[in-house]
Amino acid sequence: MNAASALRTLSRPQLSRSSILPFLVPCLQRLVVSKHPRATITTSSLPPSTEPQPETLKTASSAKRRRPLTKEQRAFLDSALRVNQAGELAATLIYTAQTPPLARAHPSLLPLMQHMYTQEAGHFAKFNALLAKHRIRPTALTPVWTAAASFLGWSTALLGREAAMACTEAVETEIGGHYNGQVRVLLAWMKEMEERGEEVGEEVRELVETLKRIRDEELEHLDTAVEGGAKSAEGYELLTGVIRGGCRGAIWLSERV
Questions:
Q1: Is the distance from CB of 195 to CB of 188 less than 8 angstroms?
Q2: What is the dihedral of CA 227, 229, 230, 231, to 10 degrees?
Q3: Taking the CA of residue 254 as centre, how many other CA atoms within 13 Å lie in the half-sphere pointing to its CB?
Q4: pLDDT one-digit tens code per residue, 33-92
Q5: Which residues contact 206 (CB under 8 A, 6 or more apart)?
Q6: How many of the other CB atoms lie within 10 Å of CB of 47?
Q7: At 63, is the secondary structure helix, strand, or coil?
Q8: What is the pLDDT of residues 1-34, one digit of tens each?
Q9: What's CA 250's distance to the chain center, in Å?
Q10: Does residue 185 carry a pLDDT above 80?
Q11: Angle between helices 142-158 and 17-32 (to 10 degrees)
Q12: Through-space distance between the first and last CA atoms of the chain, rounded to whole angstroms
């Protein structure tokens, strides 16, 4: 379902900002004090210009011998792809739930919501294909993340345009850093292997390029949200703090369950 279809088919109760805030704020205050441990997968806010640049990133070298990934490296990739698939599912559901109330209140936002949804749906399809190809199970918490993402999208849209943009900013800050960390780990592997006269296979090179592309698109969404007034949202610090903490907790759990 694309964003336009969601606008036509989804029906939500017409609640006002004043009616939902008394319900949400106490919940947010209880959640924000909880400590979500960071996932073992690396998260990085360092710019791409500081990434390792292995010579074999673009093309293979016949002079180097191929070495299969270690058990630990395969476990890292299994966990990373499982988390990525869950995160992209959540992103599509957030935009699907946000689109109807936002488009009713701000019709000019519909093309933007469609654009971001389409990109997220493409990311989701890519990670679904990678899970199937490598026989990696999705997280068992998919039903939980489905409900949570739908509620997050719907409730932030009801709070207004700025709150919806703050939601996008918070999510993309965590997810962009998460992808950035994965890219740096894979590039470091490749650099280390080069120094030993080895190289990874074509699939790992393709995965690095895929993660870099998706990371850049997620960060584009972050910039769009900030430009769209995210920081003007009522209760901005509390709202984004809770959402970012929830993202970190969801990453940590999805790695393990």
A1: no
A2: 100
A3: 30
A4: 333 333 344 444 455 555 555 555 555 555 566 677 788 888 999 999 999 999 999 999
A5: none
A6: 8
A7: coil
A8: 444 444 344 334 444 444 444 444 444 444 343 3
A9: 11
A10: yes
A11: 130
A12: 28
